[in-house]
Amino acid sequence: MSDIPRIMVFRPTWEEFKDFPKYVAYMESQGAHKAGLAKVVPPAEWIPRRSGYADLDALNVTIPAPICQVVTGKQGYYQQINIQKKPLTVKQFSDLASTERYATPKHFDYEDLERKYWKNITYVAPIYGADVSGSITDPDQDSWNINRLGTILDYVNKDYNIQIDGVNTAYLYFGMWKTTFAWHTEDMDLYSINYLHFGAAKTWYVVPPAYGRRLEKVANQYFPASYKNCNAYLRHKMTLISPQILKQHNVPVSKITQESGEIMITFPFGYHAGFNHGFNCAESTNFAMERWIEYGKRAVQCTCSNDMVKISMDTFVKRFQSDRYDMWMEGKDVGRHPEDPLGGTTVTAAPLPPHLDVLLCDKKMKKQCNPTIAKSFKERNPDLDLDEIQQNPNVPDDVKAMLKESVLTLDTGDLGIEGDYPNEDAVSLQSPADFKTKQELLEYMDDGTGV
C-alpha cells in the first residue's frame, strides 16, 4: 500500500491564512483531501483568544451534560456508549481530570501512551465534556473564526433560517485522558474543522475516503446485528476498531498527533477516530465547499432514527448544479457516491429533498445523537454486550443500574443516554455544586446521572 495518501501538514503565512475557503481550496489542489485529514499550523500572527486560557473560570462555560464513556468489547473491536452525568464548570472538569482515577498515566512517549490507550480501553470509563454549544474564540477574530467560516454551508442558515448545533455553529469539547471519538464520517459527509485551544494533545486516526467503503465492510463483519438494524449505524458514533484490526483487513489507517494551537481539517467521507491524551479544550464545527455537494446528495443516512442530522440539498443543487436541478427533482439524477468503487456499486438516483417545502429538520437539532425510536436500548444496540458491562468492576454502579433499567425501557429520554438531550431550560437550573476537595467532586460525579 505504498500509494496510500499521507496526511499533509500545512504552515501558511499570515497572508495565505486570512481567507479560509481560499486556503482550503489550495490544500485540496495539493491533494490533501485524498488522505481524509490534514493538519494546519497557524501563523504566529493568528491569536484566536487574546486573553488566553490561564483563568478557566473566565471562560464562562458550563458543561451541562458531561458524558461517561463506557466501552465494551475485546481483541481490537469495541462499542462505546455515552451516559450523561451531572453539570460541571470547566475548572471542576479540569480538577476531575487530574484525579488519580482519571489522570494521564506515566508514559515514555506518544507511542507508549497509545499502547496504554488500547490496552486499557475497557477500564475506567472517562468523562468527556463533549458537544458544548458555544465558542471561546474572540468574536472580532475575522480569520478562521470557527463560528463564522464563510463557506457555502452558510446557505443553510441564510435560505432556511435554521441553525444546527455543532454543524453550522461552534461546539466546544473538553477532554481528559482516554476520552474518545469513535469511527465516523461527518453528518452528511461534510468537512469539519477542529482547533485545539489548549491542553494535552489529541491522537487522530483516519482512513482515506477512497477506502471508506472497505472500512464499512470490515465493521459490518464485526457488528452484523447493528448493520442489519441500521445500515448507517456508524453514524451513531459507537464503534471502535483498532488500527491493527483494520490493517489486517487491508484497510489503510494513518495517524497524527494534534498539539495545542494546531488545527485539523477532515474532508468529505474521511472516516476518523481518536482519543485525548489528557485535559484539553477543542472547538469544532462543520463547513462545506462546492466539491462536497455530490457527497451530500448521496450520503447514506441513518434509518433507525428521525433525530439524525439531515440537510436538504435543495439550495445547493439549485445554486451550484442548476443544470441538473430539474433532473434531480424528477428522480433521474443517476450516479454513485463520489467514493464508491467504480466496479462494485449499483448506480442509483440521488435522493430527493425530504419535504416539498425543503425544510431541514427541527430547529433545535443537535449534531451528535443516537437512535431514539420506540425500541428498547438493547434492540437499538444489538451487538452491545450489556452483561460484560455489568461484570466490569471499572464501570460505576450508577451506570450499571441505569443500563440494567434501559434493557426493558422503550424510550431513553429519562435515562440520560447521550443523544437524548435534557431540556435546555432544565439543565440551566442545575448549577454545578462547589467542592472543597477532589474527593467531594468524585462523589458528586458518582452519585447518579445528570437527569
For the record, what CATH class of one domain applies? Mainly Beta
Assign the CATH architecture of one domain: Sandwich
Shape: globular
Q: What is the end-to-end distance?
A: 49 Å
Describe this structure in words.
The chain is of the alpha+beta class. The chain has helices at 14-17, 20-29, 90-97, 110-119, 155-160, 212-222, 224-229, 243-248, 293-298, 314-320, 325-329, 377-380, 386-391, 397-406, 424-429, 438-446, and strands at 8-10, 37-40, 62-63, 67-74, 77-84, 88-89, 127-133, 171-175, 180-184, 191-199, 202-207, 239-241, 254-258, 263-266, 271-276, 280-287, 334-335, 348-349. The protein has a 10-stranded mixed beta sheet with strand order 1-2-14-10-16-8-7-4-5-12. Belongs to the JHDM3 histone demethylase family. It holds the Pfam family JmjC.
Can you give me a brief rundown of this structure?
With 451 residues, the chain is α+β, with helices and mostly antiparallel strands. It is 25% helix and 20% strand. The protein has a domain of 284 residues: Jelly Rolls, CATH 2.60.120.
Give the tags.
single chain, 451 residues, Jelly Rolls, four-stranded antiparallel beta sheet, 25% helix, JmjC_dom, metal ion binding, EC 1.14.11.66, zinc
Helix/strand layout:
Layout: E1 8-10, H1 14-17, H2 20-29, E2 37-40, E3 62-63, E4 67-74, E5 77-84, E6 88-89, H3 90-97, H4 110-119, E7 127-133, H5 155-160, E8 171-175, E9 180-184, E10 191-199, E11 202-207, H6 212-222, H7 224-229, E12 239-241, H8 243-248, E13 254-258, E14 263-266, E15 271-276, E16 280-287, H9 293-298, H10 314-320, H11 325-329, E17 334-335, E18 348-349, H12 377-380, H13 386-391, H14 397-406, H15 424-429, H16 438-446
